[in-house]
Amino acid sequence: MKVLIQKQILIDLKLKLYSVNKEKQLDYYVYFTSLLNSLPVRHREREQNDTIVRLNSLALRKIYYNYSLVIRDLQDFGIINKVSNYSTDLKKSNGYLINDKYIGNDLESYNLTNTALLKKLNYLSKSIPNGRLFLKDYFNHKLTFDFDKAIEYIESNYNKNQGQKYQSRILIAHYWKCRVFEYSVNEKTDNRFHSLFTRTPKDLRMFIKYDNEELIGYDLKSSQLFFFSVILKSIIEDDIDLREEIGFIDFYDSSELQYEIESLSLNNKEINKFIDIVLNQDIYNWFSDKIDCSFDQIQNKFYVEYISKGKVIKEYYETKRDLSKKAFMVILNTGVDCKNSFYKAFNDCFPDIGRIIKIIKKFYPMHKILQQVESFVLLDCVANDIYKHNIPILTIHDCFYTNKTNSKKLKQLMIKYIKQYTTLNNNICIN
What is the C-alpha radius of gyration for the chain, rounded to an integer number of angstroms? Predict the structure, then answer.
């Protein structure tokens, strides 16, 4: 297994460990240091200007019981710095940075050979279910990356964000140049397929080609609300076959969740109205007019106010549509007891759907169900069927990419198969 580390750090580590008779543990020190290079690339949901890497103690302990001694030594050696402590309120782990003197130092691949460490890492790795293995097939010699143009682009456009610049150079210099095509699926969380392609920022994907052609991507408009609509349809029509087709049956059928929802007296007209808006209108624009918000003339932005921990917080948005998208994230993803203006606006429009959401959240995190259903339909079913047509396919969650030659065919097949599994018409848009 190869990891990425600065050349000078490796030299210094060897000298330091030799001086304290710990040279046999070099692999552990290299691995933990390498996390400060690789984690920001692997987890792009982190703020791109945040170069702090938070190391979870529980995760580190699973890799090496004596991890705390290694981390302390790395600090004492002057290789890494602890820059923030664990926060219970913010639920954030200790934060670390590589010492400034090593930033900009040339990187190199280091091959881990410690048998015990490799065994742990292999055991903890999130393997790909057999049914998803086909998603790896197009990470081959035809998939190329224009390193020189990408570096020029980064140097010209990322100077105001050194964290983003540093992380992007690592992504290119190691992962793409060395063709480190890592894959993972965590079936217990989002069940999505994660790869080097998903970890590459959108603006850098223009440097990726397949079979010497640019990539064209299509995604499903309002994907999570679309799949929520499918779930609602399966509930009000009591369609067991549909629940089976979308992978919702294990969450719902023969469960307390099913009993509680079926005990409701639901207004099917209201639910069908919501589904119709999702399918045939822009749900975000439609709902944006229902949200109570204000406009800041000075900042030229919309905003909402709320109280958090006794403080008045203002959140600003460029457009009312952006505000509406955030509202749905809050409605679907926050806890069952959360109450704010977003919930009030939604419940005023769709009280019965609000009741359904509240009941579902008693049993499962709403975002988990939606991600699981989305992944099952799009990856296990739709992508698998498209793959059988011998069309190159690379996925980023609800977005499918192929080369220009096959782009029109890809869109046609996405529309066909999504309708086949969900029974609802869908709107596939170019990404």
Answer: 24
For 49, phi and psi rounded to 5 degrees?
Answer: -95, 5
Q: What is the pLDDT of residues 382-420, one digit of tens each?
A: 999 999 999 999 999 899 999 999 999 999 999 999 999
Q: Which residues pair with 401 in a beta bridge?
A: 217, 394
Q: Select, from the ranges 175-189, 260-274, 284-298, 303-317, the one with the highest average predicted confidence (pLDDT).
A: 260-274
- Residues 6 or more apart whose CB falls under 8 angstroms from that of 367 comprise 224, 332, 333
Q: Which residues are within 8 A (CB) of 53 and not within 5 positions of it... i.e. 6 or more apart?
A: 35, 36, 39, 40, 95, 96, 97
Three-class secondary structure assignment of the chain:
CEEEEEHHHHHHHHHHHHHCCCHHHHHHHHHHHHHHHHHHHHCCCCCCCCCCEEECHHHHHHHCCCHHHHHHHHHHCCCEEEEECCECCCCECEEEEECHHHCCCCEEEEECCCHHHHHHHHHHCCCCCHHHHHHHCCCCCCEEECHHHHHHHHHHHCCCCHHHHHHHHHHHHHHHCCCCCCEEECCCCCCCEEEHHHHCCHHHHHHEEECCEEEEEEEECCHHHHHHHHHHHHHHCCCHHHHHHCCCHHHHCCCHHHHHHHCCCCCHHHHHHHHHHHHHCCHHHHHHCCCCCEEECCCCEEEEEEEECCEEEEEEECCHHHHHHHHHHHHHHCCCCCCCHHHHHHHHHCHHHHHHHHHHHHHCCHHHHHHHHHHHHHHHHHHHHHHCCCCCCEEECCEEEEEHHHHHHHHHHHHHHHHHHHCCCCCEEEC
pLDDT in tens, 285-343: 999 999 988 999 999 999 888 766 677 788 899 999 999 999 999 899 887 666 678 88
The strand pairing partners of 110, in sequence order, are 3
The pLDDT of residue 49 is 42
Q: What's the whole-model pTM score?
A: 0.81
> Which residues neighbour 49 within 8 Å (Cβ) at sequence distance 6 or greater?
161, 163, 164
Q: Are 218 and 400 in contact (CB under 8 A)?
A: yes
d(C-alpha 275, C-alpha 287), whole Å:
13
Burial (CB count <10 Å: 0-12, 13-18, 19+), residue 11? exposed
Average predicted confidence (pLDDT) for the chain: 89
